[in-house]
């Protein structure tokens, strides 16, 4: 009985964390007039290397969330439609940063169905005056424990109607 209780408590705690840490918003990205481009290099899976973004990206609005618990207040948005030049592959992502921060808090980018992430602000910039997030040789690691990595350089636009500090 005690084991069942511990399992239920663990499931409840996991559910709370998933909701609190979910970030982003529930809306789907919609077309924008803003171009974005990401270049993947030094990928452990060499077929991922290349340029993604041959036109305007689809974007969600930037949301500001202040979840309960130890997760800090975050600005977050998602994008998709970063089509690989010369291929039928597309990339999409979830970008999170703290209000008034100059670098990212977390980033999740998916290429060919494999998610890569980082929780370090290095090699990133949130450039509000240009409505952009910039990557400067940012190394991301696969979230599936395969230890696969990619290096990303490029720009993802942000919508202009952002909450204060975002």
Short note summarizing the structure:
This protein is mainly beta.
Helix and strand arrangement:
Layout: H1 2-21, E1 30-41, E2 50-59, E3 63-65, E4 74-83, E5 90-97, E6 106-111, E7 114-118, E8 124-127, E9 132-142, E10 149-157
Antiparallel strand pairs: 1-2, 1-10, 2-4, 3-4, 4-5, 5-6, 6-7, 7-9, 8-9, 9-10
Summarize the amount of helix as a percent range: 10-25%
Count of DSSP helices? Answer: 1
How are the strands of the largest sheet arranged? 1-2-4-5-6-7-9-10
Overall pLDDT:
86
How would you explain this protein's 3D organization?
This protein has about 170 residues and is mostly beta strands. The chain is about 10% helix and about 45% strand. It has one helix at about 1-20, and strands spanning about 30-40, 50-60, 65, 75-85, 90-95, 105-110, 115-120, 125, 130-140, 150-155. A hairpin with a 4-residue loop joins strand 8 (about 125) and strand 9 (about 130-140). It is globular, with a radius of gyration of 17 Å. The relative contact order is 0.20. Mean pLDDT is about 85; it is low at about 1-25.
Features:
single chain; 166 residues; mainly beta; eight-stranded antiparallel β-barrel; 1 helix
